[in-house]
Amino acid sequence: MMMGMVMVVDGGDGRKLNELMDLIVVIVVASVIIPIFAIAVSIFVRFSFAAMFGIAVAALGMLSTIATGLAIDAYGPISDNAGGIAEMADLSHRIRE
């Protein structure tokens, strides 16, 4: 009899985790849908103003940010590894600045 009660209580704890997972899914879906709608609106506005040339200009504008984003993403782990090496080598804190 006691074992059945424990299982029911454990099931209640799982419900809290399920609600948290639902919240995470909503946040992830919202973070994906908002940029998709922004891109769709941008394409529609550009097409209504300048036809295919407007879409080409909008695409180039979006593509021009890729190089900066990739450089920032690639530089983060490199600087983090360098900081870790400096700490392990017991270098002064001025090195990290």
Automatic annotation (TrEMBL):
Q: Supply one GO molecular-function term.
A: inorganic diphosphate phosphatase activity
Query: Domain of life of the organism in this record?
Result: Eukaryota
> What name is this protein filed under?
H(+)-exporting diphosphatase
Q: Which InterPro entries does the UniProt record give?
A: PPase-energised_H-pump
Q: What is its EC number?
A: 7.1.3.1
Keyword Magnesium listed: yes
Q: Which organism is it from?
A: Mikania micrantha (bitter vine)
Q: PANTHER family, from UniProt?
A: K(+)-INSENSITIVE PYROPHOSPHATE-ENERGIZED PROTON PUMP (PTHR31998)
